[in-house]
Amino acid sequence: MKQQVIIIGAGASGLMCAIEAAKRGKNVLVIDHANKVGKKILMSGGGRCNFTNYYVAPEKFLSQNAHFCKSALTRYTQWDFISLVERYQLQYHEKTLGQLFCNGKSKEIVDILLDECKAYNITIKLNTKVTKINKNAQTENFSVTTNDCQYLADKLVIATGGLSIPTMGASGFGYDIAREFGLKVLPTRAALVPFVLSEKDKRLYSELAGVSVFANVSCNQMSFEENILFTHRGLSGPAILQISSFWQPKDHITVTLRPDIALVEYILKQQKEGSKQQLKTILESVFPKRLVSHFVDEKLLSSKIAALKAIDIQNISDLFQKWQIMPCSTEGYRTAEVTLGGVSTDEISSKTFESNKVKGLYFIGEVLDVTGWLGGYNFQWAWASGWAAAQAL
Ligand SMILES: Cc1cc2nc3c(=O)[nH]c(=O)nc-3n(C[C@H](O)[C@H](O)[C@H](O)COP(=O)(O)OP(=O)(O)OC[C@H]3O[C@@H](n4cnc5c(N)ncnc54)[C@H](O)[C@@H]3O)c2cc1C
Questions:
Q1: Strands 123-125 and 28-31, how do they pair?
Q2: Ligand 1, residues 125, 133, 171, 337: which to mutate, most atoms within 8 A of Cβ?
């Protein structure tokens, strides 16, 4: 069976690439080993898919080559994807920081993509395991052997994503294919992932599990201001997921709880105004109660504000606003949203996504060494890279 284009991976980038290539008249087959298309889309954004971001910019992506993502992101923008979903009357909202979520379920995004696939007669073969890929040196065709058939194609697109959530079908397949064809693959690691604390710290902070607080979290010259969440294993929440992409083992993270309040000045102001309150009352007006009783001992908490010396106030402030902690590890691919690293962009065209070494072989989406921040950036990368490759197929 001869196809013009075979795409391996029916996730975000693979489906977008299939739709755009078929629109341009190509005969497209999509192969996936999972039993459903777009499983990560379905589970994304807490079930509401954060499908793009108003503020997409190359600075929101990590890669060894910071320039690689620019071309695709400027040619297929967030506004292009927004106009696609608006054509289908998808109801959506901006949650925070430009992040666009479905009002309904993530499935609505998958339904839009599937409707488009149907409109352009794209064949999608699910539950299909690829066992071998060869390139014929004379015809330059690719042969793709699966558990039930052998297919031939002029062009082959690898859209198999990263390693996060193996239970959802994630695999290292794309990296293996890249290596087989002699392409460079950069070391990978889990990103946008919760931290695990040491056993000692876990015991120390376990009573805080479930507490969420607005914080500034910094590490390695990067910082993020959003909520953090204490968990039974360690720390999570958007600010923690963001900083995890910049964290290396043995790094400390520095946390300022409630960076919107200058705590020293706040307490001094209460003193000046002659407050008769206890420190506990003042602190509980700023931080969650459980956090207050964890960070400050009972005796100090029962002190009257008026009795506190300047040094005490500074020390109390430092407990909350200069808190340093060294995570022991991350939760790894089991819960990570994305994979850092992957197929090196050095050998891929940023315009067409074709390998410079192997004509007709394309890599798109998360399998490449391009990783977005939290906030809809990873889907925008999937849409943009899928779209850009399709223009060249
Ligand atoms: C829990 C979670 C929530 C997320 N939420 C968001 C969010 O709200 N916003 C955002 O921007 N990003 C989010 N992401 C990240 C986003 O899902 C990915 O970056 C994006 O899906 C990558 O698209 P892709 O097409 O490269 O890969 P994927 O969407 O992962 O698709 C890869 C496809 O390839 C298939 N495949 C893998 N191996 C093989 C193989 N050997 N043979 C055949 N098929 C194979 C898989 O089954 C899958 O269908 C989230 C990720 C997770 C895990």
A1: parallel
A2: 337
| Domain end residue (candidates: 330, 356, 373) | 330
298 plus 365 within the same structural domain: no
Is the distance from the beta carbon of residue 61 to the nearest atom of ligand 1 less than 6 Å? no
Q: Which two tokens stand for residue 53?
A: 């971001």
238 lines ligand 1 (CB under 6 A): no
Distance CA 233, CA 208 (A): 11
Residue 83 has pLDDT above 70, yes or no: yes
Q: DSSP alpha helices (H): ranges in 212-344?
A: 238-244, 263-272, 279-284, 289-295, 298-301, 310-321
Contact by Cβ (8 Å): 330, 193? yes
Q: What is the CATH number of the domain that holds 9?
A: 3.50.50.60
Q: How many structural domains comprise the chain?
A: 2
For residues 118 and 219, membership in a common domain is answered with no
How many angstroms separate the Cα of 387 from the Cα of each of 41, 80, 352? 17, 10, 10
Report the first-to-last Cα separation within the chain, whole angstroms: 19
pTM of the model: 0.97
| 212, two tokens | 């969420």
Question: Any bridge partners for residue 351, and if so which?
Answer: none
Note whether 387 and 312 are same-domain residues.
Answer: no
Q: Which of 330, 363, 381 delimits the end of a domain?
A: 330
Are residue 93 and residue 131 in the same domain, yes or no?
yes
Question: How many A from CA of 161 to the centre of ligand 1?
Answer: 5
| 144 and 247 belong to one structural domain | no
**Contact by Cβ (8 Å): 219, 227:** no
At 33, list the tokens: 């080993």
Substitution site in 128, 378, 387 for ligand 1 pocket (most atoms within 8 Å of beta carbon): 378
Q: Mind listing the pLDDT tens digit for each residue in 169-214? A: 899 999 999 999 999 999 999 999 999 999 999 999 999 999 999 9
User: Which among 138, 110, 140, 142 is positioned nearest to 29, based on CA atoms?
Assistant: 142
Query: In CATH, what number is assigned to the domain containing residue 200?
Result: 2.40.30.10
Residues of the domain holding 303: 195-330
Close Cβ partners of 50 (under 8 Å, ≥ 6 residues apart) = 44, 95, 99, 100, 101, 375, 376, 379
Residue 60 Cβ inside 6 Å of ligand 1? The answer reads no
